[in-house]
Amino acid sequence: MSRELDFFFYIGSTYTYLSVNRVAKIAAHEGIGLRWRPFHVRAIMIEQNNRPFVGKPVKLKYMWRDLERRAMRYGIPFKSIPDYPVDPEGLANRVAVLAAEEGWCPEYARATYRDWFLENKAPGDPEHLRLMLSRLGKDPDSTISRANGETIRSRYDSETEHAKQLGIFGSPTFVCDTEIFWGDDRFEDAMEWAKSRQR
């Protein structure tokens, strides 16, 4: 049993905006390890015929308002509704996979979501991605080249397959051992579960 959580997330998931802005600080305060694990939730949703907002404008409208309310509750900035969906080629998420392997995923995810939600700069747009990587002190050409390479693509696929085998179907999802907690609003439940486990 473990006092650790795996944080499975997809850049492009709207509610993940809340999680990337709050979970690291809370987990550190509670002494819970947090592993950032990007995966391709869109592929899983398509496979399961589970695309919650496609062709559902009423539900989509509710989602944005709910997200705005929750952001206000947590003190997370919410400027206006950004373009959605984003990252059709998966580049932003493959960069996240690379960042997770190298230890700078939290900073990258927060910067990506901040620019998307507050500046409406779409994740995965190559021009914007280069500027953001430079701001993070990363070499844009090298980073994007590696993110487009077979090693990272394979890692992204394997993380997605692992998520699917765990029964994950949405982002964000928190996992403690084999117990899964779907949604930003289940993070506190996941924390309580992890804290109750033996080291």
Can you describe what's shown?
The protein is of the alpha+beta class and 199 residues long. It has a single domain (4-196), classed as 3-Layer(aba) Sandwich (Glutaredoxin). It is built from ten helices and four strands. It is globular, with a radius of gyration of 16 Å.
Structure described in brief:
Helices cover 55% and strands 10% of the residues.
Report the top-level CATH class.
Alpha Beta
Question: Which stretches of 5+ consecutive residues score pLDDT under 50?
Answer: none
User: Approximately how much helix is present in the residues?
Assistant: 55-70%
Shape, per Cα inertia axes: globular
Structural class: alpha+beta
CATH level 4 superfamily: Glutaredoxin
How many structural units, i.e. domains? 1
Q: Any guess at the CATH architecture?
A: 3-Layer(aba) Sandwich
List its traits.
single chain; 199 residues; Glutaredoxin; 10 helices; 10% strand; globular
Protein topology:
Elements: E1 4-9, H1 16-20, H2 23-30, E2 33-38, H3 41-47, H4 57-74, H5 91-102, H6 105-119, H7 126-135, H8 140-147, H9 150-166, E3 173-176, E4 179-182, H10 187-196
Parallel strand pairs: 1-2
Antiparallel strand pairs: 1-3, 3-4
Helix pairs in contact: 5-6, 5-8, 5-9, 7-8
